[in-house]
Each structure stands twice: as C-alpha cells, then as structure tokens.
Amino acid sequence: MRIRTAAFLLAAAHLVSALPVRNVSSYDNMPHGMPYPSDKQLKMIEEYAHGTLPNGPPPPGISEPGITNLKLVAFNELFEVAFFNELITNITEKVPGYRFSSEDDLDYVLRSLRTILAQEELHALDANNALDNVGIEPIEPCHYKFPVDNFDAAILLASTFTDVVLGTLQDVVERFAMNGDFGLSREVSSIVGQEGEQQGWFRIMQGKVPSELPFLTTSDLNFAFTAIQSFVVPGTCPNIDSIPLKTFQPLDIITTPTARTANISFAFAHSHHTNDTRLWMTYINQQNLPIVEPLQVVENEGDDIVAKALFPYDTHEMNGLTIAAVTPTKGPFPNAWSVANETLAGPGLIIVN
C-alpha cells in the first residue's frame, strides 16, 4: 500500500484513480500574462471579472504574520488560476469528458468559469501587489497537476478546495486583526463573500443546496499550504521556500464517510507510531471545538499504517467540510491553530451533504 499524494481530496470528492487529461500548467502558459499582466491584459481581466483591482491606498506597512498571510493567499490563488484555466481549455477544446450536449449549457458554463478565473486572477494580483508594495518578492506560480478527467470531477474538486479556502480565509482575517493589519481585513473579507458565491454555484452544479452550513468550517494556514502542494509538481515552485509554513505528511482517507456515525479507515506514514505510542484522530468541523477520537491501528507494515477511528456524525451533526488530522495528544484543543500545531499527518478532507 502507498499513500497517494492527493488522496485526501480524491476521497473527499469521491474520485478514484482519475488521470488528468491536461495535467501540467507552467509559468509560461498561465493565462493573460499572469502573474505579470500588461496594462492591456489587466484591463481584459477586469472586464471578464466584472470589476477592478482595489484602487485605494495600500497600508503603509504589514506585520510579518501579515506577510505570511499574503504569501499563502497568493500561493493559493495562483494554483486556482491554473486549475480554472485548464478546465476552460479542456471545455473549449472539447476534450472527452468535457463536452456538453447543449450549446446553451456550454455558453453558460464557459461564461461562469471565465468570470471565476478572472476574479481569481485579481485575487492573486492583489496579494502579490501588497507584498511588492512593502518590498517583498511576489509569489511565483508552480507547475501543477490535477487528478480529474471530466467536468463533473473537476467541479467536485473545485468545490472541495473552495471549502478549504473559505475556512483558511477566516484564519487570515483573524491573524490580520491580531497583528494590527486592519487595513487588509476588509479586503480579504470581501473575497470571502465572493468565494462563497462561487461555492454556491459549484454546489448547485452538483445538485446540492447552495449553502453548506450555518457557520462554515474553519481551518489553518498550514493545512491549506499542505493541501495545495498535493497539486504541485515537486521542485517547480520558484520561491515556495519563502513561505514560512509547515508541510505535513499526507493522510489518506480510505473509507468515505457518510451522514452516519461509523468507524472509518485512514492511512499515514508509520514513522509517527511505535507499539507504545497512542495516536488520535482530531476533527475540525464548523465553528465547534475540535473533536478527538482514539486511533486503533489495524495494520502496520512497510512504510504505512492503516488505522481506524470513529466518525461521530450523529453526536455533532458533522455536515459540510470536516478537516481530519492525526495528533499525538487528545488535547483538549481550543481551536484549529492548536490542532495544526500538534498535527503529525493531514489534512484529511471529509465532506458530508
């Protein structure tokens, strides 16, 4: 058995062993001159996005934690730009799995995705512009790989990583506030609203109700940083080392949870466990205190451990996004940051509803 690099997203999106049709985006084929568009290209991006980059004065300074926030936002947004650009290309080139029977459906989907792509481009430019304004090198795109080969799988995946983004931006806003970067909080909060509208569309396209939860699941910058790297071709990010965040070992969700309480199976690297070590599965769901369940080792062979833990759906109404992490302690954990600080493997992404 081998832990798959993108297993947590494959499990969350119910994708199995899908191979990408167009699986690498590089700096050279980022759309519209990204990440450094010309004035003409920027004007075109803004027209597609139905709006402009903010034109107010930038903050005179940004704290070190605030700079880390902006680097993570730029890192994420460039990944999203590559993803949506590849999706649009697959549709326009009528790649098998991305064809539509109705021209009206095709037109509507392409108009929607082109707007989403342009809005993500502006998000990336806004974060990098803020870094450049205080003399920090902007984040550069990587080469990416996307484990989908059809439109429905792509929308499932987009919905999953947008859930993570919505949780991570909560962390970004709180860190801005805690470190005095008030001038950036309102702008990022406006992005939260935009991403929420986008997520509602993804959910409708899956036949789900548009709003997922009353209080969206929170996350931590380090979980997002690790998750994005599942789509990165190793060694292709020019300045990823400038982002001072943790990269965790992968956590593979073997059993796809459903809306009921049951034991589910996980796999992770065996280096975190010896026969006398207790490990725990810690779940982050909605705005509630993290939930901790003991891990029971089922198999410990080769490089990996297979273990099971209870997914206590009924007790906690664990709908929407749940972030799972292997921890060496059962806490108590007061928030997502404290879980990330103790995480050995993760994040595992679970979506119910």
Description:
This protein has 353 residues and is of the alpha+beta class. It has 2 domains: 236 residues, Up-down Bundle (Ferritin), CATH 1.20.1260; 101 residues, Immunoglobulin-like (Sandwich). The strands form 2 sheets. The chain has a 4-stranded antiparallel beta sheet with strand order 1-2-6-5. A hairpin with an 8-residue loop joins strand 1 and strand 2. Helix 3 runs antiparallel to helix 4 and helix 5 runs antiparallel to helix 7. The longest helix has 31 residues. The protein is globular, with a radius of gyration of 20 Å. The two termini are 29 Å apart. It comes from Penicillium bovifimosum. Keywords: Signal. This is Sexual development protein.
Please, how many domains?
A: 2
Major sheet description: 4 strands, antiparallel
Mean pLDDT: 91
Topology-level CATH name of the largest domain: Ferritin
Shape: globular
Q: Element order, helices and strands?
A: HHHHHHHEEEEEEHEHE
Q: Which second-level CATH architecture of the largest domain applies? A: Up-down Bundle
Could you state the oligomeric state of the chains shown? single chain
- Give the total of beta strands: 8
The stretches of 5 or more residues where confidence is low (pLDDT under 50) are: 1-26
Q: What is the assigned CATH homologous superfamily of the largest domain?
A: Ferritin, core subunit, four-helix bundle
Number of helices: 9
Pfam families: Ferritin_2
Protein name: Sexual development protein
Organism: Penicillium bovifimosum
Keywords: Signal
